[in-house]
Design a protein that fits this description.
The protein is an alpha+beta fold. It has three domains: 280 residues, no CATH class; 113 residues, no CATH class; 58 residues, Arc Repressor Mutant, subunit A (Orthogonal Bundle). It contains 15 helices and 16 strands. The strands form four sheets. Strands 2-6-7-10-1-11-12-13-14 form a nine-stranded mixed sheet. The protein has a three-stranded antiparallel sheet with strand order 5-4-15, with no helix packed on it. The chain has a two-stranded antiparallel ribbon with strand order 3-16. Helix 7 packs across helix 9 and helix 12 packs across helix 14. The radius of gyration is 30 Å and the shape is elongated. It starts with a strand and ends with a helix. The protein binds zinc ion. The site of zinc ion has 8 residues, from loops.
Length: 477
Amino acid sequence: MAEYEIVCGLEVHTELSTKTKIFCSCTTEFGGEPNTHVCEICSGMPGTLPVVNEKVVEYAVRTGLSTNCTITQNNKFDRKNYFYPDLPKAYQVSQLYLPICQNGYVEIHSSKGGMKKVRIKEIHMEEDAGKLIHDAYSDCTLVDYNRCGVPLLEIVSEPDISSADEAVEYVEKLRDILRFAGVSDCKMQEGSLRADVNVSVMPVGSKEYGTRTEMKNINSFKAIHHAIESESARQIDLIEDGKEVKQETRRWDDTKGYSYAMRSKEDAQDYKYFPEPDLPPLSLSDEYIESIRKNLPELPEAKKARYMNDFGLSEYDTGLICASIPLVNLFEKTVEITNNPKDSANWILGEVSKMLNDTQTQPENMTFRADSLGEIINLLNGGKISRDSAKKVFKAVFEEDVNPAEYVEKNNMGMMNDTSAIKSAVEEVLKANEKAVNEYKSGKEASFNYLIGQSMRALRGKAPASEVTKILKELLS
Ligand SMILES: [Zn+2]
């Protein structure tokens, strides 16, 4: 059997996290009762006119600048005509001829070793369609237009991807960039990031691409990986059997683990594209683009490098924190307050993660004041509370958003700073434990630890252990 290589390109669709839709002021919020987030514009009533949401343009430019694209200063919208019940206007407003971003790239690890660039051909703005609900009744299909007009970016790569692993890393990188750039939450389970996957195979070393197939709307990393492996194997089998790969759109069934033919692939001409007559072309000034470039948030690569180089965090810990924007925000606020990146990271990966786990909470649903964690670490490191107390205070912060200092005060958790009070408590302990004292004096070291334990208990953990040890040594010598 000849050796084959995979040639794969991805069209990644991401829903933008603007508050309102692309051409009207309906909310983009996920969910809601069917057909409640709609108006006459996004439900395609005749005689209505769309107006471009400025935030969508800004987010598209931000995404382009974050992926090394050139911004098309004079870009425009086009009509993509097709009828399907989830699209009430019978056309989708998209960008074919002059997309807003072109010629960018994202860097990934090559399966052959080293780094490689996956080129981005273009990024265009478009509107999402509604959703068909097939399983509510057996004899009819329902339609929910809430998603109609939610802004999308379609990010089209060149066929530079040569393995399922590379495809997954590319989409992960894109997801991180989109999240850090603040343009999308990329919740794959809610469909706000999904990919159309183009795959073909060719003998190793060949210059000519094989016939490609497309699998639409794949919405998990696992499914993307699985689909590419399975579809490339299917094509290789066909070629080895002397059969032809047909150019077609296939549906990937992730539960069954195979794809099946849906329809022969359409060409652009099938959609009878023409310039959108209801929207003027966009003209973006140099100043406008520069102002967005200047205000770009710190992107994932730069942030990770800073955490490792400036803060001395490990690559592993950096990766865990950077997997979630709310954790990144909490971490940065905590460092700002404590000036102690290591402790801040340890608390986030320790107590914060533990509470998130125990309560099955997603980081974006944390409700406590961001300053609180830093305040607790400062109380602990300043010797004002014990480590045990700090954990208890954090639990109360996490659950009820209490003010740490007030909570410590109210629950009498503050450390004793009064040496004479600690001393008299330790003296009481020695009196009550004469046996252990004698044992220690006759050389039994373990008795010393026992006496520390008894003293800490008598002090209810509110005296620094180092102080108690010091006093105990003095009294026993
Ligand atoms: Zn609307």
